Structure to design on (198 residues):
């Protein structure tokens, strides 16, 4: 398992595939153990790095992970097979915004780590699949230190993307349904839980 994780880190570096920072994934694994999470939905598999590590954090954790990029999807399937996690990690090849989950499907943890400009849409679509006392965790809220400094960014595309992340942070802060804690871990994480379940 350790070798596979090192292989995946090297692959991600070489192919420039964004995977979670080590502090961020350590936070997630700790959260899964502490909150007895059994069922995880991950939006954005990439090569399966975080899905495999989340699934490995406890014997009875199952992860459903969604990926729309075919190359990443195939790589993710390959990595899941390498560590014999086919029973623990279900990889779905689709755009998360087009996917229709079966009614009544609930997850203890929903992890958002896909297209940054779509974070709000992901949150609004999938909050209905959050189990009671579950949490929605979002990654990359610092976005490599750019968040909060969008006016200084020269690239228009990057500026627009960062501005969408800033809007998402405001959306979380002012959300009437969810309470959100922000953590300066990895590339910036948030943990959102329903207000009536504090």
């Amino acid at each position: 398992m350790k070798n596979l994780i090192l292989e995946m880190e090297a692959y991600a570096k070489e192919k420039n595939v964004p995977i979670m920072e080590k502090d961020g994934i350590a936070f997630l694994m700790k959260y899964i153990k502490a909150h007895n999470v059994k069922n995880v939905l991950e939006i954005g598999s990439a090569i399966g790095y975080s899905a495999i590590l989340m699934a490995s954090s406890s014997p009875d954790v199952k992860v459903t992970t969604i990926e729309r990029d075919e190359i990443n999807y195939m790589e993710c399937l390959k990595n899941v097979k390498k560590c014999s996690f086919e029973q623990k990690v279900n990889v779905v090849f689709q755009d998360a915004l087009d996917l229709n989950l079966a009614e009544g499907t609930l997850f203890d943890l929903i992890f958002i780590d896909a297209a940054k400009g779509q974070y709000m849409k992901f949150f609004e679509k999938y909050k209905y699949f959050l189990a009671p006392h579950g949490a929605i965790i979002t990654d990359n809220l610092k976005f490599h230190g750019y968040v909060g400094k969008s006016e200084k960014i020269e690239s228009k595309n990057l500026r627009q993307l960062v501005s969408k992340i800033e809007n998402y942070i405001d959306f979380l802060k002012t959300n009437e349904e969810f309470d959100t804690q922000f953590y300066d871990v990895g590339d910036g994480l948030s943990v959102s839980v329903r207000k009536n379940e504090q």
